Amino acid sequence: MRPLIPLGLLAALVLPLSAPAAETAAQPASPPAQAAPSVEPAALALLKATGAALAAARSLSFTALAVHDVPSAEGQSVFYVGRSRVELRRPDRLRVVTDGDGPSRELILDGRSLTLFRPEARTVATMPAPASLDAALRAEVAAAGETQAFADVLLANPAQALTEGLTRAFVVGRSRLVGGVETDVVAFADRDAQAQIWIGVQDRLPRQLWVTETGAPGRPRDAVTFSDWVVDPPLEDRVFSTAHTEGAQAVPFPASAY
Q1: What is the pTM of this model?
Q2: Which fold has domain 41-257?
Q3: How many Å apart are CA 47 and CA 197, to the nearest integer?
Q4: Where does residue 46 fall: left (phi above 0), alpha (psi -120 to 50 degrees), or beta otherwise?
Q5: If exposure means fewest CB atoms within 10 Å of the residue's CB, which of 3, 130, 139, 231 is most exposed?
Q6: What are phi and psi for residue 137, nearest 5 degrees?
Q7: Which superkingdom is the protein from (predicted)?
């Protein structure tokens, strides 16, 4: 915890009781201690480093275990858990298979089309491939009604997503308890959210991310734990096949997805 009043300023406000008033008046006040920056350079460097490590990978695969906080009508937080297996090949291949407490779904970008398949309902929505991977992720939000907790790590510029609009960032310290590796822990915030991320010391890949939406009713929280990281795996085109969706009922993507 940082003191509410800088120690240097507090010392300047305490006057020696034995000093005469005139002598006290003659003494120039000590300048206040310099306040620590709201966005610490070391914290910013770590956020940029994890963004750079993700952006440099030509392909990625990982597992994400996400916990979503959904405030109920009574104000009680209810937590839902989802697990996603993610395979990415830049610039235009992505497969995300998600199951958990809600309906499972698959998002597949094969370079020509974007497909959202719901296995239990046997429905499939297909649209022409968006112009970028970022646009494909936005289309999923429009179709699924929610964003994946790990979406920022898939963007073309993850560092920008992590650092844009920051109002506060500082290094908490190091941990050896997350992901089985040593991690740097960074807390950061913008106008609408507060977050904490655990970043691998050796590979700079994220191992855990917690986010509190401070601007939303009930201040809902989301957490995602990353595991099974593989950087630059050889992902063949068949990984992104949609053949298993044949025979499913066709449904449209919402207009907002385009």
Answers
A1: 0.82
A2: outer membrane lipoprotein receptor (LolB), chain A (2.50.20)
A3: 9
A4: alpha
A5: 3
A6: -65, -35
A7: Bacteria
